[in-house]
Amino acid sequence: MRRKGRVHPFAILTELILLFGKKKPPEEQVPASTTSLEPFPIPDTIRKTITESDIAKARNRLRVANLERDIIGDALTKIYEAEAKGTINEPEKNQMIQPYKNDLKRVDAEIDTYKKTVDLYELEAAKEDLFKRFQETFLDIQARIEKIRPSLNLPTSTETKPTEPNPAPTKTEPTEPIEQNAPPKEKPPREKARNKAEEKIETIREEVLKAMERLEQIETEG
Contact, 111 vs 69, CB < 8 A? Predict the structure, then answer.
């Protein structure tokens, strides 16, 4: 039985170093995009028309106006209750509630104005916030596009095919109008009737002449 040759330990170590000690090829680095993405300005149609100080004043006045309306409502309620209890009569009630009615109309108008101001500010703020979120999403997508596009080696400009010139329109010589034979004009109905009558008379005349010729032949033969 043949014995296998002895393997030198240094040879095994050398093979392991050569096998695992190879350097990996350097990875290709994607060139970073040189274009900087700047957020586009907010259009004038999206900007707020009400400032922060104006909305603060409107909210404070709206709060005070609502409180004043509650006070006026309580006063009117007490006046009507006093009339129901018999403490005051109807003319006294009407005299007492008149100034409160005027104040109530004024307060309701103020509440309507301040409430519309607050609603307008909140709607414009929601629109501006929506625009900013759209802008952030758009810039994020554009940044990803600029990062991936250089690695694909896409053409930067598209070649446009030259357009062929349109041929000049040829002039056509005017042709003389060809006169066509006009259809014969129809005669009026009176002339047609007259011609038919004349033809009938001629046929009768021919028949008479033929009859006379026959009579003459008969007489000559007799």
Answer: yes
pTM for the whole thing? 0.48
From first to last of its 222 residues, the chain has per-residue pLDDT tens of 444 455 455 555 556 555 555 555 554 454 444 456 666 677 777 778 889 999 999 999 999 999 999 999 999 999 999 999 999 999 999 999 999 999 999 999 999 999 999 999 999 999 888 888 998 899 999 999 989 988 888 776 554 555 565 655 555 555 555 555 555 555 555 555 557 767 777 777 777 677 677 766 766 665
Residues 6+ apart with CB under 8 A from 142: 37
C-alpha–C-alpha distance, residues 91 and 202, integer Å: 122
Closest listed residue to residue 43, CA positions, set 127, 119, 122, 139: 127
Give the span between the Cα atoms of 59 and 52, in whole angstroms: 11
Q: Which helix (H) or strand (E) holds 213?
A: helix 189-221
**How would DSSP label each residue in 81-104?**
HHHHHTSS-HHHHHHHHHHHHHHH
Alpha helices in 21-51 (DSSP H): none
Q: Count Cβ atoms below 10 Å from residue 63 Cβ, excluding itself.
A: 11
Q: Give Cα 193 distance to the centre of its chain.
A: 74
